Amino acid sequence: MSSAQEAAHALPSSFDLNGLSGAFSNPVQAFRMLDKNNDGRVTKEDLQMLLEQFGVNGMAAKVLSKYIFKQLDANGNGTIEPSDLVHANGILTNLMKMKQSGTA
Hints:
Blueprint: H1 3-10, H2 17-23, H3 27-34, H4 44-53, H5 58-72, H6 88-101
Helix pairs in contact: 1-5, 1-6, 4-5
Keywords: Calcium
GO molecular function: calcium ion binding
Protein name: EF-hand domain-containing protein
């Protein structure tokens, strides 16, 4: 199973894609929301906390945050910048499509 399939499989069936997509519609605002401790960095842990706020818990939150973080960290520096968040909606939408089509 690929990491994308594993991440899609981890999405709960009741996941509110629209709610989370709305949160990522403004990258700067999303960055501020993700940067819980205001240190100017968004880590996997910050992303996991956001997923938990949207009902993704436990191992599912860990799997999804790891996959999404890897996809968003464009320069591979271990943190997410506001410009990296532009692609967040597309990643989530693709994962949900995989889950709904049964390819996850």
